[in-house]
Design goal:
By secondary structure, the protein is α/β, with parallel strands linked by helices. It has 2 domains: 2-199, Rossmann fold (3-Layer(aba) Sandwich), CATH 3.40.50; 220-476, NAD(P)-binding Rossmann-like Domain (Rossmann fold, 3-Layer(aba) Sandwich). Helix content is 42%, strand content 14%. The chain has 18 helices and 14 strands. It has helices at 13-23, 36-42, 54-61, 72-78, 104-116, 133-141, 164-169, 182-195, 209-240, 244-252, 273-286, 290-317, 345-355, 369-377, 406-410, 430-435, 452-458, 471-476, and strands at 2-7, 27-32, 66-69, 81-84, 121-125, 150-154, 174-178, 204-208, 326-330, 359-363, 400-402, 415-418, 442-445, 461-464. A 6-stranded parallel sheet has the order 3-2-1-4-5-6, with helices on both faces. Helix 12 crosses helix 13. The chain is elongated, with a radius of gyration of 24 Å. Bound molecules: nicotinamide-adenine-dinucleotide (NAD) and uridine-5'-diphosphate-glucose. The site of uridine-5'-diphosphate-glucose (UPG) has 20 residues, from helix 9. NAD(+) binds at residues 8-13, 33, 38, 86-90, 127-128, 161, 272-275, 342. Pfam families: UDPG_MGDP_dh, UDPG_MGDP_dh_C, UDPG_MGDP_dh_N. One of its GO terms (biological process) is glycosaminoglycan biosynthetic process. Its EC number is 1.1.1.22. Pathway: Nucleotide-sugar biosynthesis; UDP-alpha-D-glucuronate biosynthesis; UDP-alpha-D-glucuronate from UDP-alpha-D-glucose: step 1/1.
Amino acid sequence: MVKICCIGAGYVGGPTMAMIALKCPDIEVVVVDISKPRIAAWNSDELPIYEPGLDEVVKKCRGKNLFFSTEVEKHVAEADIVFVSVNTPTKTRGLGAGKAADLTYWESAARMIADVSKSDKIVVEKSTVPVKTAEAIEKILTHNNKGINFQILSNPEFLAEGTAIEDLEKPDRVLIGGRTTPEGQKAVAALKAVYAHWVPEDRIITTNLWSAELSKLAANAFLAQRISSINAMSALCESTGADVSEVAYAVGKDSRIGPKFLNASVGFGGSCFQKDILNLVYICECNGLPEVAHYWKQVVSINDYQKTRFVKRVVSSMFNTVSGKKIAILGFAFKKDTGDTRETPAIDVCHGLLGDKAQLSIYDPQVTEDQIKRDLAMNKFDWDHPQHLQPQSPTAFKQVSVVWDAYEACKDAHGICIITEWDEFKKLDYQKLYDNMQKPAFLFDGRNVLNVEEMRKIGFVVYSIGKPLDPWVKDLQVSI
Ligand SMILES: NC(=O)c1ccc[n+]([C@@H]2O[C@H](COP(=O)([O-])OP(=O)(O)OC[C@H]3O[C@@H](n4cnc5c(N)ncnc54)[C@H](O)[C@@H]3O)[C@@H](O)[C@H]2O)c1
Ligand SMILES: O=c1ccn([C@@H]2O[C@H](COP(=O)(O)OP(=O)(O)O[C@H]3O[C@H](CO)[C@@H](O)[C@H](O)[C@H]3O)[C@@H](O)[C@H]2O)c(=O)[nH]1
């Protein structure tokens, strides 16, 4: 029986390994992690991450051919194929701080694999890493040559959170990069055979190592660029009276452009886009390509601009001050159908409003109070370290309360900000919310989920990204 071990039981390691176990009953899969609470949660009824459909997959395989363990070294030693799916945060200190990928966790995993291995292994990069990481990993794995043959493959993951199970079950493509040597190609074939259990062969792409590593960064840069492009247009729409949804629809009808990923928003979030683009920018700089670096950096700059612009709209519409005013924040996760808050635009919006002394009442159906307070207290980029290495006692914000109901969050509020596009926010009784708010009652839709005209009929002063401006908002606008 082929044995797979995956180092890192996070958003990627957990679901991807559960899918392999489900589709390959002839393979034993063990997911290991240094975090004891995380492994305990994977072995319990309350999984550490919320992802539609994940519970069912885990329940079907756990204890049969899917195991979660903290015995990292034992399972790595026994495995034929070792996936590495550990954190690759943005560096906060030293060379490349604020841009380059911090490969501390990857390096320590690679050193451990080298130390405990007694048999040949295929080592698979599942984490998103800079181009040429495989070369460094190869050097680490072979540093104390014990006659063991390691083959390094790059097999980046393209799943999106909230649809991870769907994406894993029917991927657009699986990408496997390997050395062009006979041994390298044998390893590629072995990993291809795993995916071929359920992925059609024409969707399994094989390339050289560097193409696979770079394709992951490129794919995320292209996706994020679409969002920054439509968000840049949203600012122009507000100035001209065009409607960004109509523009996106018209543009997306061109089959060369396509309709997906053109939803204007308060800004993109999530653990990957910003981090991976900054990483790409750094690699371009290191390769003497400042113009290319600058081009991609703009995708992140426009995203920062969009978040700032939203906060300015809120403050300027409310007579240029939110000091002491209650503002309801509906949604904290970086997108719907996930409890993940990494790099969520909600953090920047909350910081912006708190900077103007607002009182925030936050509601998200999947994010805990503890998580929200930790996020608001954390330094930039600190979130992307294993949980036990993150700062432990967040500062309590007197200006922030976290509640478990949207109606409670909005009661007596001066304004509502919709930050995550949870379906339940479309179905709220807005008349009831309006009746229980201070007047004038403001509604700032950062996700374009509401019908602006209906909301205006109720009596709200409405701002919706990239939509023709409410006369009120227009009259009070400041330069943005
Ligand atoms: N989240 C996504 O949607 C997504 C998608 C594609 C790629 N990626 C990439 O995949 C990688 C993992 O992302 P994630 O979201 O799963 O992160 P995560 O923080 O959820 O999980 C990483 C896990 O690795 C563990 N870990 C760290 N060092 C370890 C070590 N030396 N030994 C054992 N365990 C260790 C941590 O405790 C943590 O549980 C990152 O490189 C990320 O960029 C993420
Ligand atoms: O039209 C759109 C689409 C998305 N978003 C926002 O963009 C962010 C990222 O969304 P999404 O890409 O759906 O989620 P992620 O889980 O971050 O997935 C991205 O990042 C992963 C990690 O690398 C990749 O594997 C995926 O392919 C890639 O889509 C979220 O804040 C979304 O709200 C928009 O604002 N407008």
